[in-house]
# Entry
Amino acid sequence: MVLCPVIGKLLHKRVVLASASPRRQEILSNAGLRFEVVPSKFKEKLDKASFATPYGYAMETAKQKALEVASRMHQKDLRTPDMVIGADTIVTVGGLILEKPVDKQDAYRMLSRLSGKEHSVFTGVAIVHCSSKDRQLHTRVSEFYEETTVKFSELSEELLWEYIHSGEPMDKAGGYGIQALGGMLVESVHGDFLNVVGFPLNHFCKQLVELYYPPRPEDLRQPVQHDSIPAVDTFEDLSDVDGGGSEPAQRETGSCDEKAEAGVAGQATAEAECHRTRATLPPFPTRLLELLDGFKLSKALLTACKLKVFDWLKDEAPQKAADIASKVDASACGMERLLDVCAAMGLLEKTEQGYSNTETANLYLASDSEYSLHGFMLQNNDIIWNLFTHLEFAIREGRNQHHRVLGKKVDDLFQDAYYRSPETQLRFMQAMHGVAKLTARQVATAFDLSRFSSACDVGGCTGALARELAREYPGLQVTVFDLPDVVELAVHFQPAGPQAAQIHFAAGDFFRDPLPSAELYVLCRILHDWSDDKVHKLLSKVAESCKPGAGLLLVETLLDEKKREAQGSLIQSLNMLVQTEGRERSRGEYQCLLELHGFHQVQVVHLEGVLDAMLATRVAP
Ligand SMILES: Cc1cn([C@@H]2O[C@H](COP(=O)(O)OP(=O)(O)OP(=O)(O)O)[C@@H](O)[C@H]2O)c(=O)[nH]c1=O
# Structure
């Protein structure tokens, strides 16, 4: 792309930099941009796991920073800026995203991870174009990212600590500043240096060129060159075609527009063509295409788990694709492609020596690790994937699709589908165990439950949550109540330990049999499996078993009231349609259900990930 002078185009606009970073301010003012600084109040806490790529996360954070400032400024003084610029810089190494360290130890962890290795620095940038109509704020966003690779030397402990004690790492992604003392650590840089410092100025200017000098029709007839710059939204009000002033002079400069030579008439034609071009060139649907590829990425992850790729690579020296292929009876060419995708997804690390697990893979994907989600992955691969292939039928019929997958009627969801054989039951329990272990600690500590001396985890499966409750409250006796077949297998999941004496298993069907008595009842991801009728039935049984003052701890994924925002919960609700008789519900819906059954004083705590915990107290009928 030919770079044209674009910064001047912004001179008469109200430009705002939504960033507190002094480096970004310096880079942009050195480039001659005039702008105000309004640091964003957006909390950088997006769920990284919900992004297919690290740069997707950085771009979204940049966008949210800029949008927060745009809407705050609009609300506050109704002097809407013309443009708000947001940016977010992250460092990625071995599939991990590093942001600013929270303390010196954190800086030490980050820098030792980077020592002697190559890492990537991504800066996501969002340019938010604002306008105001009828006092309403309208925004259009162009976004892009830049990647630079940086190689660090091996760093001695002494140097690491000396650098950390200088204080420089604390406000910088990855814990270093390449522009200052941190420059000592760097062996080589590949790509835009300023991108590492915090703002990819060159790419920003190219982006502005795309906006202010849209391609002419004859340019479009040339074969399209796809480079790393995604096409962007174009805006009627951006090119200043009616603005007189500097526009013709700008167009005459450089090789941007030979048409200026054709005089005023030629200019009018060029402008008309520009308008046509803008009308025929929609923004490139990057996000849409990423969504489309989502299922392929999921299937690659599930297949790698099924083939136990992460088990073969755990605690081993790097291995070649052919070695892994021979161990799992697969083709070398197929395995290489699978491993490359896993590396691109941040699950494996690929070097000259071969492939090795990232920390994420060691922690969650190897089948024998403490927090393994391997069972959950297999459940998704072997059961849920098949159910989702019938999504169209699920939508048409409004019910789950086990009958289609199994080729027979399913009357009892658990007995006929999930527990239809010892093998499917064990896989289901392993899946639930993995998920429960991941969230049990947060659930157990969401509220102060120390006033209860006994608890009953209704449908508590392997007792993973019971164990955390027992650990957190040494005075608490916990009964796990579940179907007899489940209770029989659950013992295999219970490690020995001091909590064992606090945990008891009781067999029964919570729709038919009396519930064990307790001061606190726990329903963790149970109600979402069932229809409203069955939810009422279960809640009234729990209510009958409770004395006034007893507690009910409910853990579910809450939908936002308008069902618009919480993508993770909305997809869970679709998942419930395909798999169960139930659905996810909103906080308001649960509150109504609870109050109807005599549970009041409902408190809600949002947990990390998609879960929410609610604690309610039974009042006298
Ligand atoms: C790798 C590297 C990063 N940084 C700084 O790290 C911060 C990233 O954090 P952020 O969240 O993107 O920005 P911020 O500082 O919190 O500001 P804001 O945009 O308001 O969120 C920015 O400052 C960057 O310059 C350097 O100064 N030098 C380097 O070599």
